[in-house]
Amino acid sequence: MSTFLGFASKNVVLEFGEVMIRPMRHEDLAQIIRIEEMNFPMPWSVKAFEYELEQNKNSVAFVAESNSRVIAYSVAHIIIDEMHLLNLSVDRNFRRRRIGELILTINIDHARQYDCSIITLEVRKSNLAAIMLYQKHGFRQTGLRRGYYEPYGEDALLLSLGLANAAC
Ligand SMILES: CC(C)(COP(=O)(O)OP(=O)(O)OC[C@H]1O[C@@H](n2cnc3c(N)ncnc32)[C@H](O)[C@@H]1OP(=O)(O)O)[C@@H](O)C(=O)NCCC(=O)NCCS
Which domain holds residue 50? Predict the structure, then answer.
């Protein structure tokens, strides 16, 4: 069973209505895969999500739900005192409504709660929306992984947020 480390669901009211952040469940996967395939050229498979939910004890996975519909999700690993954010994705129909920001800050809060000293992630060099989101929350570039992304070998920026002095 994936480790949710005690996170109960949290309701947040945004401009367009109420959003619930809660741990990801197996029954969410059909909706998640639909969003995943729309958002990424190399989408994760159902098996990849199942592994995170059912086997990887370091995994922390959340969904944002509105009117019983999954509209965003995230997957991160917590290993000792480091969180690595592997996936964060918002349904195209719900973009620019602060959902990405909400699910990111839930992950940051979660990392703090479990005494992580740093959060790291990779992002495509061309993904300006995501880079702006992460920069807004204090992430800074700490590395470059050349040719990291399949299938065309796009570079990844390694971004990090140190939690000791984080401004979020
Ligand atoms: C990146 C993504 C998660 C942003 O989610 P979102 O819910 O639309 O973003 P939010 O409404 O929370 O925006 C928060 C901040 O992100 C930045 N941002 C988001 N979308 C942006 C865009 N299209 N252009 C520029 N900045 C953007 C802004 O700084 C914004 O703050 P502001 O509104 O005060 O300017 C979303 O576009 C997405 O799912 N993209 C596809 C999947 C992906 O690339 N995931 C990241 C992988 S590393």
Answer: 10-120
